[in-house]
Structures
1.
Amino acid sequence: MSNLEEIVSNLTMELRRGTLVLCVLSQLEKEQYGYSLVQSLTERGMIIDQSTLYPLLRRLEKQGLLDSNWSLDESRPRRYYVLNEKGRRVLNSLIEEWTDMNNTITKLLETKNGDGDNERLD
Amino acid sequence: MKDWIDRYLYAVGQKLPRLQREDIKKELKSIILDDLDERIANQKLQKGEDYEATEEDVFAILESFGSPDEVAAKYKPNNRYLIGPELYELYCLLLYIVLGAVALGISIATTIDILSSQGPFIEQLFKLPMNLISAAVSAVGSVTIIFALIQRFGKEEGIKGIDLNKNWSPRNLEPVPVSYEVIKMPDTIAAICFTIIALIIFNRFPHIIAMYNVSEGITSVTPIFNLDVLAGYMKYMNILWIGAVLLNIYKLKVGKWNTVLRLSEIVIDLGVLIIVLMMTGNPAILNPSIKDAAVGTEMEFLMKLGGIGTVSFRIFIAVILLFTVFEAAKHIYYSIKSH
């Protein structure tokens, strides 16, 4: 990998890392277990490393944003995660933050000085 | 086939915190099995309904999860520092202070030890770096262990409270020192080293400042100084030299000249100059047998150089005098300039 590609790939990874929690929380309005969550993220184009996702779920649970329970009704026991009240409030705040950030960045990228009047950057 | 999964889970489990181990393993197992089912279903779609799952399928899944070390590491808390960023500044600061204090203490203790013992000089001199190194290693070690323990067992909020930069305010910023106000570290450290070496040699081993004359395989050693007379001057010289060492250590700490420092420097320089002048003005300072020892050797020219009242002697005195006056004048000039 050339130096340039490496830099880009590292920076992209950092960008994604920051948005990971938001992506995961957004998919947990209704109960999901590990595998179904990976599927639902992948289907929507968010590819996430499994070994990153599961520890993240546990961390979010520890922070009190998710509830989890073992379901024994199926062929094998599965751990289901779902947003709780606190998690839902955090998600809503994060969505607001994301929307603001997205608007700002979009403006920044469209124009040279952010006033919306200039030509697009090369 | 399940055996591989169990091996994998066991390997991950070994690296996990004990309390969460079983729970995480159970969850990982259900996820891996889900993944495996999905893979087998896909294989059946591609290769027909009678596809039998193989070990390769299991390996592919396990490889996609990553090595047990990696997987376990992701379950551990993020801040896996020996000494985290909040503590690092304080750690460095304490390390310097402790190292400085230990170095000073050991230097003084070892110097006294060398001065008061009777062993051969070179062997004795080796004691100092040896003692310094071992003391420095244990000082760094204990400070590090203490900080690592605070990091490991300290409450997160408590550690954040220790952060040195928390109470920072722009009002407390020091003015940028002008170049002539900056004390040069290497010079100061060199001065400390040379002064300590001079202290050791002139007090404990003045006899090694000698003329070494090798003839027919036998080395004859004739000390240059009359040791009794020299000792009389050393009493005063020691006060100045120890003063100079302390002053230089203090200079290292403050890093910036101020009037008091400059005055102390002038006082010590002048004091040393006066003693040197007194010594050179006293013919009794030389070992009476030095002239005889020098006769007939390649050292003979030294005797011509060294005689009191000769031109070369006057030049020698003049150089020392000029140098000291120049240094003093420089300090006075800058001292006035900075006000």
2.
Amino acid sequence: MFASIIASGLAAGAIYALVGVTYNTMFSTSRVMSFTAGQLAMLGGVFGSLFTLKLGMPVLAGFVLTLIGCAIIGIITEFVAVRPVLKSLDQHLYVLSTLALALMIQQVAAIKWGTEPQPFPRLIGLGNGVWDEKFWLPVLACAVTIIALEYLYRRTLVGRAFIAIAEDNFAARALGLPERGLRIASYALAGMVGGIAGYSGGELLLAFFANGALLNFYGFVPVALGGLGSNRGAVIGGLALGLFQQAANFLVGGIFSSVAVFALFIVVLLAKPQGLFGFSTARRV
Amino acid sequence: MNATQELISQAKVHAIWGPFNSGEALATTPIMARAKMPNIHPCVVESLIDTTKFPNAFRLAPSNNQWDDAVRNYCLNILKVKKVAVIGDTTGYGVTALGASVAAFKKDGAEVVYQANIDSTQPDMTPDMLRAKNAGAEVIVVWSVSTGMEARMFNTRAAMNWDVAFAGHPSMSSGEIAGLVEKPENWKKVYVIGYRSCSYDSSGKLPAKSQDLVDRLLKANVSVKDTLLWWIADGVDAIDLIAKAIEASGSTDGEGIIKYWNGLSKYPGYFGNFTFSPTQHNGYLTEEIVMSEASTARNGAFNLAPGYG
Amino acid sequence: MTAVAATVARNETTEWRAILLRLVPFALIAAAAMILPFVSNDYWALIGTRAAIYWVLVSGLNLIVGFAGHLAIGYVALLTLGAYTTSVLVAGNVMPEVPVFAALPIAGLVGAIFGVVVGLPALRLRTFYFAMSTRGFATIVAQIALAWQSVTGGGIGIAGPEFPAPFNTAWGFYYLCVAFAALCTWLSANVAHSRFGRALIAIRDAEVAAEATGISKPRMLIAIFLFAGALAAVAGGLFATLQTYITPDAFTFDLSVLFFIAILIGGRGSILGPMLGTIILTILPEVAAPLAAWSTFLYAVLLLVIVLAMPGGIAALLDFRNRRPLASNRAIVPRPAALADIVRKSAGEKSLSLRGLTLSFGNVRAIDNLDLDVKPGEIHGLIGPNGSGKTTTLNVISGYYVARAGTITLGEDVLAQGLPALRARHGIGRTFQTPRVIGEASVLQNVMIGGTIEGQATFIEALLALPRNRRDERMLTDKARALLGVVGLEALAEVRADRLQHSELRFIEIARALMLDPDFLLLDEPAAGLSNQEIERLAALIIAISRRGTGLLLVEHHADLIFDICDSVTVLNLGRILAAGTPAEIRTHKEVVSAYLGG
């Protein structure tokens, strides 16, 4: 029992952490929290199952196509739901536009893919029991992604340009950084991160349209707890959430575990609105 | 809900066949009763049939009690187990069926070591199966229509190296499951509700009338692979009954249709022989219910389960 | 009659005409609702009843989402709560049976309390976070409904309540729901057109300015959470009756989305818009029958289109008045003399004093050991280079920042720091460096907001349009019009504020601040962006204000204005006082000249 909790807790936690990173990546260049983050992860699972199981492609081809598909959806988010809204003074519009887009993605998936969870292909076929690939694959994917992102942000010019845009938009533009191009690139990157989350988690969560809404929330909790913009916080928050949730799942049962997670989330947020590791927002006056 | 009202008021139909799940039926039956609309449906929840409240509704299937009796008898008297786990989904049907089943098992002296209503879209069945195993369950009784959830339970059983038997709802024998189990062996040792009319006897033969229906379907290129023969038989019978009622009463008037149905005695359908009366709208006869071996479907009909006479 | 009173009288008739014009669309909809039974069948009764029930909920939610601007996307939670509460009370499976007409108010009460619970995070959380938290509540309620089998029947569900005759027929129930809908329209419109409605919009669009006028965000929000929660729960009870039988999956998140999108399609700050939005969204899946499965998709597309193309929604489309072009050669001609009739003379006993004020942002000393006095009736100028701490000083006095050291006293009383909403009651008003007005509201409404805390009527009285509220409105309207006359903008009273020029917005802020007859007025660069002629007129206005006994602290860069009208001047540099004294002294002060004024 204990081993199962740890295994599935870390796996689920890694998926939630990656969705949190998706949120952060989108936020980093646009200051926008997008409702499409969870949907991207859902599409990672759905595309993966579509390409490899339904269309019979080899695993690698299916993976690459999934990433491309999710990157495209990320770019669409930027075009349709983010850029037009950044121009207006109204603070809340991005919530509505990304919500609308996320709903559209979810409904299309429900109608075209179906409302039943569909199986996800076995990718590598290594391990069984608590060492089954559906448990270690998400954790591995999360680790690799985080390391790759750290390298991107700290060692490459593009990564540092992302950080510049995030920290001081006006200064970055004054320096001549191509803000729009960078933003599109970061949304494509976020799309891929989401796709990786869904693809690596496909065996655990199955290819299911409702995963979008589920991961929207469970992926947001690490961000809220770990502080907006902090990938490290997202990972810690995600793993903690995964372990807590699965412990509740195994010991008590499905319904109460989600109530427990929601209740805990709301309580923590009310106590520390910036998150456990975050800092306050900019001045108001 | 809107659809039912639309059928009654806008399309002005003369009879309604359906709905096909008990949750919806719970909501739509009162509407049809208000409109005195003749209604045949195959939903099993007990409360749907009530000759005083809903004199217009007829059930063309066994009631859930009849199903429950058959499964319980099989578990206690043929499999000879003492400890059972009962699992249902979270729909209206699942909750009612589980409640009735658990109560009946306890009354017969069995021990219900684990019971749960599980959301049918839950992707990982390990927590519940693990809890059932730790509690010492010797058979898992399942009351759900979700083939996805059931297939996941079969796969989890294999991953846990546990050889407990499953018994219960006929959806566990549906052709869809073939595509959802990881290995064909995972589908063994699953025993479901079946019907004499749709079962192969020990010499591998269907009853003559059913064989007729199968031949007709095959000739019309209707695939029976992904579904159950009894569902098709039930549908054919339902339409036939509506047609015969209109024919016999000479009009499409609702009252006449209902009167015809109330007078049926051992009407020879494909699915079974139906008997209705003004005070009995559960038309299926208990002796026609059997248990089948789930993975043995051919043309939607099954082999009888082991130990079943 | 004075010129101002004549203006008031003339405006009353135009106001009555405006009100009647506003009522016409509602009357049309009401008429259509009454006729419906005679031109169609039971099926449309169902649709009509559904639209009415949804509107009962949406009319309350409208105040939260459309007026206060809080994106509560999980409101189906309260519908579920109300539906189950009413059904359980009437079915009598937990406690003795309760007749349905008693069960509805009880459910309303439960809904009100939970409305506050669900809404409370809005006081602490930012937009997206709050939206997510309401989503969380929606899921929690749905899960509890599923799990609490002994009360709610779990997956089996529970029968909805039945009404006694004549409400138990399709059309009888329809009329009952239409009656509820009409009542809720009236109630929410009352709130919208009262000072509470305006305060909500102020909190949404100009929160900082709202605080400066004394509006207390928590109290406002709690009032509407109670109201909207109650309405949603009553709608839930009616919904349960409509469905005749409820299970947890009747309360999908799609319903929440429908409510939410109806408000945004209708347009924020409007009653008619969301009402039309609700009706349209209820009918849409029925009219486009083959598209029923795609209905949520269509709602989402509609929302996206509205957000991108028409953020104002249907209400903006119907706002014909604000399409009329404005004169391009408008001049602002204040009439300072009229001030005497409107603003009462200040008692002039207390001085505003700062002693030893110190504030740092990180390592930067923004204000260093500042001493300052503003006497009643005095115009005190505060000048200095950029970054010298002038606006920061005003912000500390206003209460937006807490000083690390030092005190602010009003006469003998020490002012508590960090509580900007309390300043208005102490008689301190202010304007802002960048005008903070509500673009979507009219000029008149913007000014009326300044006087919000002078209203006597409670929220309940506003809700029910009782006489004391009408008197409040009368008082606020008259005073606002009069003050607009004083600042010279009365011709633009009905115009949307976002159509005005920058200089006009500055004068509106002054009018707004004057609504409370302030003892002290803090003006933050009021002349910035004004033409020379306008600056002259501003000067006359400021002098007239000071003659009423109001003490003014004027932060400015226009040296001429300062030296012309100020009684005393303080010069700041790098947070410290460089010099203080009369304008004549300052003008020739060596250090001031070199650091700031230039030779």
3.
Amino acid sequence: MRVGIITFPGSLDDRDAARAVRLAGAEPVPLWHADRDLRRVDAVILPGGFSYGDYLRCGAIARFAPVMSELVPAAGSGLPVLGICNGFQILCEAHLLPGALTRNAGLRFVTRDVRLRVENTGTAWTRAYRPGARITVPLKSGEGAYVADAATLAGLEAGGQVVLRYDGGNPNGSLGGIAGVCNAEGNVVGVMPHPEHAVGELTGPSADGLGFFASVLT
Amino acid sequence: MSEPKGRGPAWTEERRRSDEGRRGLKGAPEASGETLLGLTEAEYARITGILGRRPTSAELALYSVMWSEHCSYKSSKVHLRQLAAKAPPSAALLAGIGHNAGVVDIGQGYAVTFKIESHNHPSYVEPHQGAATGVGGIVRDILAMGARPVAVMDALRFGPAAAPDTGRVLPGVVGGISFYGNCLGLPNIGGELDFDPCYAGNPLVNALCVGVMRHQDLQVAVADGPGNAVILFGSATGPDGVGGASVLASAAFGASVTGGAAGQAGEAAAKRPSVQVGDPFLEKLLVECCLELYAAGLVVGIQDLGAAGVACATTELAAAGTGGMRVRLDAVPLRDPSLGPPEILMSESQERMMAVVEPGRVGAFLDVCAKWEIRAAVIGEVTDAGRLVMTWHGETVVDIPPGSAADGPVYDRPFSRGPDQDALAALDPAVLPRPADVSGLREAVLALIGSPGLADKSWVTDQYDRYVRGDTVLAMPEDGGLLRIDEETGLGIALATDGNGRYCRLDPYLGTQLVLSEAYRNVAVTGARPLAVTNCLNFGSPEDPAVMWQFAEAVRGLADGCAALGVPVTGGNVSFYNQTGTSAVHPTPVVGVLGVHDDVRLRVGIGFGDGAPASIFVLGETEAELGGSAWAHVLHGHLGGRPPAPRLAAERRLAGLLATAAADRLLAAAHDLSDGGLAVALAESCLRGGVGCSVRLPGDPFTWLFSESAARAIVAVRPGAEEAFGALLARHDVPGQAIGVTGGDHLAVAGCFSIPLAELGAAHRATLPALFG
């Protein structure tokens, strides 16, 4: 199983995503933003960071990177794609996922270990979790407030496309406490918290995040 | 600031620069006023003597920034020399003072480089960008050594927490560090936050960076090899920060902020163009670009551009190398085409580096830059002519011997013990009213734990990314930051910074040793072995003999302390002129200690854990030592008497014990005792782990709770390991007393008080959000 990890200029958690993939038992494959080549990987992760410095708007420039012209059709054909934090923002900008991420309610960057409820265990990236599982994963973002119009939100809730929800306190003002969503098919998932930073007690609050990377192997 | 000598012996900078003193211009500068660009008349005369003619405007600009206090260390180097002279022998040192940063061998083929630097004055003028570019500057220092930067820390000091100006400066500084460090992808793993009226108008913003490399990756800042190309790469040069080194960190800045609060704000606004503006995204690309250039072997020498920009990089590279360089200033990429040679030389535009590259490799070098979308321009070449020659559209505008600019003047400024030191020492805290009863003790504990300097710092640290890179094992509020370096072996490094202006105001010699001791101890409690020291020396005006005495005593204390603890100073930074009018900040040396951890999986944190009750021991000896203490400061606004006595031999034994106990898996928790004494340490360990404790104090409760005697720590011993731990205490000759056990949900002190953790936590956590929103 080969899992590609895209490095954009300003990607920061690409190394961590690769480690998580390795710990889950798959082979991490580096993908470069400027290459129109997915190197025949079986799944792709867009890691956290500040692609292009988050200038203009988070994810707005990365969306036009050459590698995205390969990724978008592949995602449409069912390739499992996970966007974490900045990766989630890029997936929204690329219209692979609905909604947008905006400035935190408190206007400050927030680093915090957050409790989450896994709401949908049918996606390519969450099927290793028990339904309703509670997990603890770090959140670290300045623009993590999920927003969408009322009809979109109602559609997400009705269609089971809310993948993760903040449990016991909303750290950034996300509508509906939404921390992660997926597309209708469930192969494209975006999450604001960082499961790759929860792969063990030594360097994270838990090993709860490993389930994302184990899911795509099954 | 940089005097690269390859892998030769450390301390070369001080020796080389002392030669300058023998060549003349030794002794105090004339008391006469300053001339152009911050140079004194005597310094101007010295320049005309070197050149045998009047300097051009470009040369004058170059000398003014190179001979600024910030770049030349002209007032401090006669004292800093002892740091080398008294340094203990260390097999771990690969490069010492005089390089961009010191380099330490941590074993298994890894080397670590670390350094702390001030960005105090810019952070007062424009808090957000001032603090942000402080991070950016120290990161480039580390990058220039060949290392990958892997973490940052910040030691921050502000005026009174409730003062309106603190409400402007603190959120800006924290936001700037968050903006730059997070976007750069470096975990922020610790630091300090303190408040004191003496820092109003002079906040201290000290940024530390640590980097890691393999031994063979060490880079040098030399321009060797005639014919080699000189390449400037990174950001284009703009007008930002022109003269920052000579204006902001200068007497001129200090003198300008004497007109009261309104005058200060006005002057600060007028100096704003001297503050640089940072682009962390570009710095991230520059980091990756440089590391790829190093890995491909494309670099002969490299220097970061910080204070004094192109002037500093060209003169220092040339002075350290074959000895000459020809530079075409019109080849420097500009973001403002109206800039002329003096501005280009003095600009402190951020995110720039300068490399020396063999002619045959220039193409490959530029290709790597292009991959990372980094602008690069060949602006000159190395010569063997012994002259630094710069041209501007064919016209020669600079022609100097580079060593004369790189080696500034040396001043042995007069110093004498301040006339108020005796009166200060006579203000014995023993006369202060102590809590009348046990409820008074309880109130004092809550007051301390909720005081701004000791309160929960999540308001600050939640704005920093501590997780990125995935190797952070311990971060604030732990005593020291701990990073994993090798995933296979568990090899890691621990870092802590400490400062204490109150101790150092009472006695700068003893105070500096206490600061060093605390940082050393904070590294030791994680289970790491302290290895090396960096320092950032924040003082008032060196032209005030009383301040100069504080400085001389602090450096002497640091040198003697490092010798006694067996840890060498590898580098550092001096910040003078931290004063408003005639009122200087407390002498505030901030000391950073680096330790090596053989296996981070055996790290020890400060929090009490749940499970079976663990025995709590107080290690070290507790005396009634309250001079400069947090209790006197918070409860009485008092500063006087003598600081606690440093116990350097005991510190060393304690550190040895802690490392062994951690390796033997005997400890469930360990926490150093410092500000606020045992009371604050117990409260912090309870709150960190969410588990209470029940203790019985062996002597006078007031003294045991609040004394700040040095060389002490508390440990929670794993159930069943008590006997082994007792044997270890005897073997390491460390006094230890069992005072109770962990467990429950109260901080319970028999016969005194029992505070629910919920109440303790509320008092601890409410303070900073109430102040800063």
4.
Amino acid sequence: MLKEDRKAIDQCVRCGACRSVCPVFQESGWESANARGRMLILRGLYSGQPPDHHVLDSLNSCTTCAICTEICPAGINPPGLVERGRRHLASKGITSGQQRLLAGNILSSGNTFGIENERLSWLADRSLISKKAEYVYFVGCMNSYRYRETAARTFAILHRFGATVLPAERCCGSPLLRTGFEAHKLVKENSRQIRKIGASTVITGCAGCYTTLKSSYPNEFEVKSVAEFLAEHISELDLNRLDLNVSYHDPCHLGRHSRIFDQPRELIEAICCLKEMKTSRENAGCCGGGGGVRFGYKDLSMKMAQKRLAEAPDCVDYIVTSCPLCIRNLRDAGGGERVIDLVDLLAMALPEEPIR
Amino acid sequence: MIDIFKQLVEIAGNRVSASPCERYCYRGDASQVFGNPDFVVMPHSTSQVSRIIRLCNEHLIPVTARGAGTGLSGGCSPVKGGVVLDMSGMNRLLEMDIENQQVIVEPGMIAEALNGLLKPHGFFFPPDPGSMAMCTIGGMIANNSSGMRSVKYGTVRNYVLDLEVVLADGRVIHTGKRVLKSSAGYDLTRLFVGSEGTLGIITGAGLKVVPLPKTRKLIIAFFAEADIAGQAVIKVFSEGITPSACEILDKTTLSVLKLCDSHLAIAEEGDMILFEVDGTEISTEEAARQIIEICKPLAASTRIVSGLEMQKIWAARRLVGAAISRLDPQKTRVYMGEDVGVPIKEIPALIRKVQQIAGKLDLPIMKYGHIGDGNLHVALFIDVADEAQWERLRLAADRIHRAALDMGGTVSSEHGIGLARAEYLPEQMGSDAFSLMHSIKRVLDPKGLLNPGKMGFS
């Protein structure tokens, strides 16, 4: 265990403030399902208590949404400690079947789904891929395989600014890093391609990829979310007004983890009427999908997603977000096609249908 | 031999755990008192609680009830093992009876959630511990807790009209009626309030609620010394003004307060007193003006705050107790000797004394609390990896407790006795009074199974 981690765990005064916000605890009710319980479990673990599957469930059921970090009076960051706790267990070979399956998929195929199909199948015109570019659009597994239209729309917009894509993009490594594994090979391979293109900035529309590119990749290029990049270039987009009311769901890794709250709202408010959800920005509810929870604890994940959906005002036409994992989870929980990506909304406001 | 786990599962279904991991999480609260439960059960109904208690009574299994586990005295730490009853799953509002100024709740209802439900009706449940976002009504009743507004509104005790209690043999009683006053018989309701789960398990509560004030204002005053601040407070009360809150925060606390919310426009120019007044627009304006007048000759500066800024100051104030690590990441707040209370006139002397105690032991200290009702929260913080610092901390806590007793005060104003302060209770109460309390305990819990090892009962 890292010395700093022990210190951080010791700083938990067990006040229980995290009980009031933890979305997993609100579904479960057991102490082992909130940050205070997890800090105790980590303390026990590092003091030599033998781990069992309950320990694994406690750590693995954290969505790493970081709302506990937001409220913790002592200033602790439980998700970071939980992730390192997962790594500690994984290093001893203690993992769940779902963890192993996810890791196996990524390591064998380079994507979270274990799909052998071509990652760039969303891009019809390959001549648009440049060998050298200032900007790289990092698509991510979800958009590459599940939301290809969103990927195509995002690229169409970014290509106007000279962006290209990696010729052989791999998973960013986020699912591995979130669930206790290392992602050196993926990081190395993606970094090599970015370096070869000579890009100064990598832009991504996935909150998970964003956090990972920002914190786990070599500090050789700037990382921007699509929302940040487009908000900077809003005047060049020539957007039309839409007669729509929409809510914005803050993805945890883009919002609380990365403090990107204003830019997506700036873009939305430029084209339609934003109606905030019951909780928003740093207090926003979690979609329930992050931290490997969607993969490992589907029922729990769906309950959290349903709760989040219920926070949207009835009057809105769309719940917009900027993370494909959030979209997937919220759609599956009953949100359906009402849940869309920020870029899909922007595409409606663009003067012409973007290039496919 | 009977399989207790199986029996518990028969009663509470999948809301029973015997996993080492879960049991480890239920070892204690925010104090340094830890136990080791054999089972954790999260009941959903009074009848389940009654059946569990009967089972435990029959098989001599200790039972420790718990709300949100936010206590600071080890009140919910299962020091004799047995069953921990996590009551937080019984969290429903059973009746909203605004016409009769009452609500009926299950014990797991969160204080803040209750106030959220009452707000649209223009009412509130006044006791407001710093933990009100997560603490349960049952836990508050068991500890007779209170908070910043107790100076005007009193403690939980003033709001409990009736309790549903499961006794040690499993019988279920009601201690009161749905009336705002009663002079019928011994006041059993008040007996159970503050009994920390040693006399019975609270499974329901009828609570008095009161109208929300129309407005609130905060008067911030800085003083060069705690003594002068104390004088100002006494003068405000002597003039017949009852603030809805009256808090003292020393310079160190103010530094931490600003780390909780960096946008707070608060100087660190000495000890700060927060006076809150509530009522109508006219009455609060008048009271605020009077307080400023009284403080002016004594204070370095004064100003009136309201609206969002006031809310932010209170929000930061609620967090401040646990936030010391933000000031010094090497140190952790340890809750010991943190809840003493003295007659309000003695507060400046108590502040001097605790400063002296901490100084002699070379311990950093933060002092804040409800100066308006004589309750001082002393925050001691140490490097918890250093055993020598622990020794000094324990010594300081002991001296603080004894100082409060010497001044005619109490070792706990609102956090309870539990195990952390149990050794001082006989001394505080006197041997005859303590012996009477023990007799009551024996009558209600002859086998000594309800929260054993607490409140100084052997």
